[in-house]
Design brief:
Largest sheet: 6 strands, parallel
Radius of gyration: 17 Å
Distance between the termini: 12 Å
Structural class: alpha/beta
Helix content: 40-55%
Strand order of the largest sheet: 3-2-1-4-5-6
Order of helices and strands: EHHHHHHEHEHEHEHEH
Number of helices: 11
Length: 221
């Protein structure tokens, strides 16, 4: 099966939201009773898996959904300062021009995503945006997407910057391209054994071309 759809995570993969998220998370520290994070703390957290980050924060697992909801609401105030990762818009434009269908599956809210895309004139690059409500439920959103759109796992590849993106893709039986310019460090991403691990947005084009060539060269039965 030829890859037909490239699905992207949003925060850290397409949008450079880290600084805005740090501001929001520190703003909510008192309300949710966790310590504020310094730049040094964030660098340390990059070496932890997504689940380890939650555990390290000390936030009760029962409060995480409420914290996530509040972060999304507060992030809306930071939208004017959020821009795409350097080089990603040009890569997305080229991928789209090559006939690929592009979409987003994210833990952020759809209004936030659409506002950031529109502010940066990138909304027309994507054919769909699916927003999930939990940190670790992305695989369920992917499976719903596959059923609704009528795609097989072999026709889809996912691009993300966190260990939970790798986890979700594997549970959904789709290929995963992990990117090192987002939240998690290269080392912790590599430990999760993604199908591909890249350091620059331009490498996306090479990986997608290699996948399509591999499909083309596969014997037909």
């Amino acid at each position: 099966m030829t890859v037909k759809v490239i699905v992207f995570d949003f925060d850290g993969t397409i949008a450079d939201t880290l600084e805005a998220l740090i501001v929001v998370i520190n703003r909510l520290a008192v309300e949710f009773k966790y310590k504020q994070a310094s730049r040094a703390d964030i660098e340390q957290l990059k070496n932890l898996s997504s689940r380890e980050v939650i555990k390290d924060s000390g936030v009760s697992i029962f409060k995480v959904p409420f914290l996530l909801r509040k972060v999304k609401l507060e992030l809306a105030h930071e939208i004017p300062r959020i821009h795409p990762v350097p080089g990603i818009k040009e890569v997305l434009t080229q991928l789209r021009s090559q006939g690929n269908k592009l979409g987003i599956i994210t833990s952020n809210s759809k209004p936030n995503v659409m506002s950031i895309l529109q502010n940066n004139e990138a909304q027309d690059l994507f054919e769909f945006v699916y927003a999930e409500t939990t940190l670790f439920g992305k695989h369920r959103v992917i499976k719903k997407f596959l059923i609704k759109e009528g795609f097989t796992p072999e026709e889809v590849v996912y691009v993300g910057d966190e260990t939970r993106d790798i986890e979700a893709a594997k549970k959904s039986q789709i290929k995963i391209i992990a990117v090192t310019w987002g939240f998690n460090s290269k080392q912790v991403l590599a430990a999760q054994n993604p199908d591909f691990l890249i350091d620059r947005p331009e490498e996306l084009i090479e990986v997608i071309e290699s996948l399509k060539q591999r499909d083309f060269d596969s014997p037909k039965v």
